[in-house]
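Try this one yourself first.
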């Protein structure tokens, strides 16, 4: 059929009867890749397809399909349109054996003649099937169809030979072009199977769809709340701007293909503008737009833009449709995975402290990094607890496991430990009571914990461990040390266990670093050794730049391969003493979310703080910077905002804290259109950059801190 009739593919279907009725199963497929991969293996006899109609009526049936008959015919979504199909029944006496079906892409111009020839060929095939069944006494289709390769030369493909020579295989070798195309399909499938996230899926699409087909631009978009949202792109920024945010009811290539589920191929500039005059400003000469249809409500489209005219024949269309089907499944999976990861990460962060206290003698900051593995869930936590007698409790802990149970137990354990500590119990008693609490929570999980009680007035530190790595101290003269503290048992292991602790004094400018074992370099690594190495990497950063130290260590830890497996909590406390004597160093105020009038209160708060210190010369600049940062926080962060001021001998330190993790940038344009639409930016941050001696933003467990220093 492929050689004599010029068919795209020929298929022999045999009838199979079971408890669910009669179906037509493909028994043999004649053709070459990718044609042999486009045909449906099972056809319902009562369905609308031409093959089913031929079986039901017992007559040869022909049809031209300009578009898919119905959205439910997912088995046909890889056959290029338009096409012709002719189906001849295979009938022996009164028994219907099956159907012989041929498909022509593009449609055949001699459909009537084909019907007669297909009917004759069907009769010959029926005779052969009957003779064979008399020999082996069977007429059942096999578990999978027999593939009969029928390669032909590129001159018969309907594509200019020069075009094929430029793109696929050796044009003088039959089958080389088809196998070269299917090679890319296989490689795309392998890359998508290994892609953990949407970024990796888009990289695979660029390398295995866009580049092999010679496209200059690639835009994948999905439907979201009645509009197109770009999920990934490469090449033309103009196309991205035209696609992203476009309503689905506006006639654009991406929207039309998404809504209809039918591919679109516009081979040159004339065809492009004839169909879509609004693309006059688009920097492409031709395009192919493919539907992305997932298993659920996922719908999207993939646009390939070409810089020159580009004819895409039937074989390439089929390959592109196969690739689009694989891409849709991978995008849907990655989207679900990232949504689950975001949900679990948000839950984890909600269980962390909303804010950390500011103490006159101690500067505190924390960092939390979730695991990038699919679960994204862990039991790591940190806390800072005000204790009786103006003392402070520093806590990090880790509940075993990486699932929702770990996070729930972590939240209960943190609340209980905080309550015991606030009552004034000794660190060892706090751990003992927390261990009893964990045992009563009806769980098999255990937890490790580090509790540090800091007396800032006397410079005394008491460390109590529950199977947790010992905290590190960076001392002004002795360097980095790991105190000799009893390790004890983890929480929840042995009821009634008596915990012990160690106590020592520290000098001003001592930095305490508490951490969880997510800091390790390898599965067999030592958390203390790896933490020491990480802290040593910041030895050139002065101790008072606590945010810079925390950011540097977080960046270093995030690049480690083991971060894929576990989450990590870091808690830093810089003991400063009180270099200003009895003067109140720290002051704060809070603003309710979206209260823009609070900006005026912040200006008064800043000026009053500076006037009390005879620093009115700084008030104007500080008010301007405070107004800009607080306004950004109120507009972009859906949270309350805290404002902190802290005095040092040489500078004033200003902080604004909110619960939005998006970083501010000092320019109005970023590299990413999506990030630019959501990030905080504007001239105000450029002013902050000019007027301050240093500024930055630092993420913490539930949001970020934007800070600045201004010299006195």
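Now uncover the answer:
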């Amino acid at each position: 059929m492929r050689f004599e009739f010029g068919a795209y593919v020929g298929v022999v279907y045999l009838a199979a009867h079971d408890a669910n009725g009669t179906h037509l199963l493909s028994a043999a497929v004649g053709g070459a890749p990718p044609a042999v991969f486009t045909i449906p293996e099972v056809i319902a006899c009562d369905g609308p397809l031409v093959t089913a109609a031929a079986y039901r009526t017992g007559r040869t049936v022909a049809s031209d399909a300009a578009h898919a008959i119905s959205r439910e015919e997912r088995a046909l979504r890889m056959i290029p349109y338009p096409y012709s199909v002719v189906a001849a029944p295979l009938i022996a006496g009164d028994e219907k054996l099956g159907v012989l079906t041929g498909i022509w892409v593009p449609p055949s111009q001699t459909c009537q003649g084909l019907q007669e020839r297909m009917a004759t060929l069907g009769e010959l095939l029926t005779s052969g099937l009957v003779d064979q069944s008399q020999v082996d006494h069977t007429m059942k289709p096999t578990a999978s169809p027999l593939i009969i390769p029928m390669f032909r030369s590129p001159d018969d493909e309907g594509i200019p030979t020069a075009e094929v020579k430029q793109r696929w295989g050796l044009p003088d070798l039959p089958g080389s072009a088809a196998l070269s195309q299917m090679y890319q399909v296989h490689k795309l499938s392998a890359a998508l199977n290994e892609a953990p996230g949407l970024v990796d899926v888009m990289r695979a699409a660029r390398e295995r769809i866009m580049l092999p087909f010679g496209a200059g631009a690639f835009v994948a978009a999905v439907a979201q709340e009645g509009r197109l949202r770009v999920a990934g792109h490469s090449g033309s920024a103009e196309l991205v701007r035209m696609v992203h945010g476009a309503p689905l009811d506006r006639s654009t290539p991406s929207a039309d293909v998404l809504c209809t589920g039918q591919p679109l191929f516009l081979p040159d500039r004339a065809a492009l503008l004839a169909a879509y005059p609004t693309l006059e400003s688009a920097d492409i000469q031709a395009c192919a737009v493919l539907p992305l249809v997932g298993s659920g409500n996922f719908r999207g489209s993939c646009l390939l833009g070409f810089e020159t005219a580009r004819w895409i024949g039937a074989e390439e269309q089929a390959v592109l449709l196969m690739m689009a089907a694989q891409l849709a499944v991978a995008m849907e999976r990655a989207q679900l995975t990232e949504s689950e990861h975001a949900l679990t990460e948000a839950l984890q962060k909600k269980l962390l402290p909303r804010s950390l206290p500011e103490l006159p003698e101690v500067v505190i900051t924390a960092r939390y990094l979730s695991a990038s593995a699919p679960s994204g869930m862990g039991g790591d936590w940190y806390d800072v607890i005000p204790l009786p007698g103006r003392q402070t409790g520093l806590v990090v802990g880790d509940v075993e496991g990486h699932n929702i149970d770990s996070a729930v137990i972590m939240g209960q354990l943190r609340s209980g430990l905080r309550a015991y500590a606030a009552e004034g119990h000794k660190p060892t008693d706090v751990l003992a009571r927390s261990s009893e609490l964990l045992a009563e929570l009806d769980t098999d999980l255990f937890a490790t914990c580090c509790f540090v009680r800091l007396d800032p007035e006397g410079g005394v530190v008491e460390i109590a461990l529950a199977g947790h790595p010992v905290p590190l101290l960076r001392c002004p003269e002795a360097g980095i040390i790991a105190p000799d503290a009893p390790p004890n048992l983890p929480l929840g292991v042995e009821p009634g266990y008596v915990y012990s602790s160690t106590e020592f004094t520290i000098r001003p400018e001592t930095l305490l670093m508490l951490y969880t074992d997510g800091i390790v370099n390898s599965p067999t690594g030592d958390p203390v050794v790896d933490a020491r190495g990480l802290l040593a990497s910041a030895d050139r950063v002065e101790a008072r730049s606590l945010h810079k130290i925390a950011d540097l260590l977080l960046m270093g830890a995030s690049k480690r391969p083991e971060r894929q497996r576990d989450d990590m909590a870091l808690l830093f406390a810089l003991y400063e003493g009180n270099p200003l004597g009895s003067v109140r160093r720290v002051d704060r105020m809070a603003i309710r979310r979206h209260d823009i009038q609070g900006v005026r209160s912040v200006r008064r708060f800043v000026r009053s703080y500076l006037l009390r210190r005879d620093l009115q010369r700084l008030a104007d600049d500080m008010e301007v910077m405070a107004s800009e940062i607080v306004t950004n926080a109120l507009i972009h962060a859906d949270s309350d905002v805290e404002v902190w001021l802290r005095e040092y001998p040489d500078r004033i330190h200003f902080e604004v804290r909110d619960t939005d993790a998006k970083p501010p940038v000092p320019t109005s344009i970023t590299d990413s259109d999506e990030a630019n639409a959501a990030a905080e930016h504007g001239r105000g941050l450029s002013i902050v950059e000019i007027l301050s001696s240093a500024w930055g933003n630092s993420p913490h467990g539930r949001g970020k801190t934007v800070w600045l220093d201004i010299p006195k």
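Discussion: Confidence is low (pLDDT under 50) at residues 68-72, 154-165, 667-682. The longest helix spans residues 314-350.
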